[in-house]
Fold this sequence. Notes:
Layout: H1 16-27, H2 29-66, H3 72-120, H4 126-129, H5 131-141, H6 144-174, H7 178-205, H8 209-224, H9 226-234, H10 238-280, H11 282-291, H12 296-308, H13 317-338, E1 358-366, E2 373-382, E3 387-391, H14 398-405, E4 413-418, E5 421-422, H15 428-434, E6 435-438, H16 449-454, H17 464-473, H18 477-482, H19 502-518, E7 523-527, H20 535-548, E8 553-557, H21 561-564, E9 569-574, E10 577-582, H22 584-590, H23 593-610
Parallel strand pairs: 3-8, 3-9, 6-7, 7-8
Antiparallel strand pairs: 1-2, 1-4, 4-5, 9-10
Helix pairs in contact: 1-2, 1-6, 1-13, 2-3, 2-6, 2-12, 3-5, 3-6, 3-13, 6-7, 6-12, 6-13, 7-10, 7-13, 8-10, 11-12, 17-19, 22-23
This protein binds adenosine-5'-triphosphate.
Adenosine-5'-triphosphate binds near residues 367, 370, 395, 397 and 398.
Amino acid sequence: MTATTSTAVPRKPAPPVVLLITEALRTDRSGTAALLGALACFAVLPAGLAIASGALIGSLDRLRAQGWPAASRDILLAAAGLGLVFLLQLVLPMIARAVAERVGRALDRAVSGRVVTALAAPAGLERLEDPASRELLAAVRGGVIATNLRDAVTGVVNIGLVRAAATLSALVLLGYRWWVALGLLAAYCCAMVVVSKLYQRQLVSADGTPAGLARALYLKSLVTTAPAAKEVRVFGLADWLLGGYRGEWVRALRRVRTERSGVVRVTVVSTLAVAAGQALVFVPLAADLASGALSPGRFTAFAVAAVGCGGFLVATPDLLHIGVGGETMRAVRELERANPATLAPAPRRREIPRCGSIVFDGVGFRYPHSAEWVLRGLDLTIEAAASTAIVGVNGAGKTTLVKLLCGFYQPTEGRILVDGVDLRELDPDQWQRHCAALFQDWIRWGLPLRDNVLLGAPGHPAEPHDLDRVARSSGLDEVIGELPAGWATVLSREFDGVDLSGGQWQRVGLARALWAVHAGAGVLLLDEPTSALDVRGEAELYDLLLAAAPGRTVVLISHRFSTVRRADQIVVLAGGRVVERGDHHALMAAGGEYAAMFTVQAQRFRTEGDA
Ligand SMILES: Nc1ncnc2c1ncn2[C@@H]1O[C@H](COP(=O)(O)OP(=O)(O)OP(=O)(O)O)[C@@H](O)[C@H]1O
């Protein structure tokens, strides 16, 4: 097979204005069409102003020559035209800006939804951990996108209003002397290129600013958030955090501020230079008026048009807003392109095998953006309908193995087979529903206890006796008895409920996983399920858990060997691969790493017990 080389040339990204208008049309077609219509109408107004004022001055000549009422029709028509132009010049921008607000808000809502969908849709966690996605998500959460897009759409309108009007004014000047009109246009274009380049530089200098600001706000939030409050007090961290916040904030904005002052200087200088050129147009105009080559009416029309061209000079922060809004839209499109699942329905995948062993076949894994191999050459069979305990020192890759099993990441090398079928071929959503899990960082939902458990299988009918059974199996029944409103108690002091101890919360997490098992999950993954429990609770709980998951494949990670020893199979991970496997007795008899770890822990318990 010959290797094919890609000759595709990367497409030039669309200019920000085009991106913004396309996305605005996609989101609010009628609003954007009205906006473009208003811009088109406004564009002809300066030309109308020039023509109407010229006509009015011309009609005054006629009045002098022919008197009233012969010249009355011309005067009244010109005056009415002028009045209409003034009125429209007043009203149209107001309408356009109001519609721009509406379109900007609609675009913001749509984009926030699109970002969240694009990040929530994939079964894996890679996207969420990608720095670019994190920045977008932070922007959505912090409402930064809202400001971006509204300002950008309003910016398009502001710039559109003045530039369109200036273009039409230049066209009117063509009727005077073509070289005057083209000369002015050329000068404006040069000034615009210089100023746009500066804004572009300002935009580039803002790169990384949101990340810097997010770090600063994170440090500030730690001073006031409840979870950090204890450590902030006991270690006296408040001043350090506030100092860090100020430092990060200033660092994040330093480059932007420096660039901004440069932009203002160059904008003022180029504006003055071009305005001087604009004033020069009045020299031939005045000469032609004096020589009689131009009538006062035509002189007025061209003079007004020359002033109208000044719109090209407007270089406001709107240019920056458009740039930032365009960047945001580009990032959102890129994010969606990277997640085709959000754009097209997923291809049909194979059904989940209801039972069967799970095989890690030569699996190697590196986290995205990391060069370190966490797992390498890992061969492991997790028997169906049996319990497998995974042990190893901190950082050995035990949790990573479970994350791969859940399909949060794809193996970098090798494959994971479920009953002989590659995990990649299974429907990821279905597979994840098939796995019930208690992770080390299980979520403490600030919701009633009942919801905290039922969220293990949302939509599954909640029969009271099933819930009670799950509560007994997870040791939650003792906790419920102490709660003021039993199952209905809200587990959050923030929402007028109660808070639980660490061990009690862990039982809630266990109950949630068991509820998923009750609803049909075939694999139960427990990552340190008893880390917060007292020794008494731990010993009995593991037996209860196994009894509550009959016929299920249980994978247990634990540093507590009194729990581990009960598993059907124990696997020792080290150096990214399996170094020992067997049941407790076999591994103890082998006298290897497991036996050493078990003996150290048992010794400690014995010593503490004797003491
Ligand atoms: N999201 C991540 N991105 C990059 N590296 C990670 C990520 N999560 C974990 N790691 C790295 O992978 C290695 C294995 O971590 P893992 O959590 O799997 O170990 P573990 O055996 O479960 O440890 P412990 O017993 O402390 O829970 C560690 O070196 C860790 O730094």
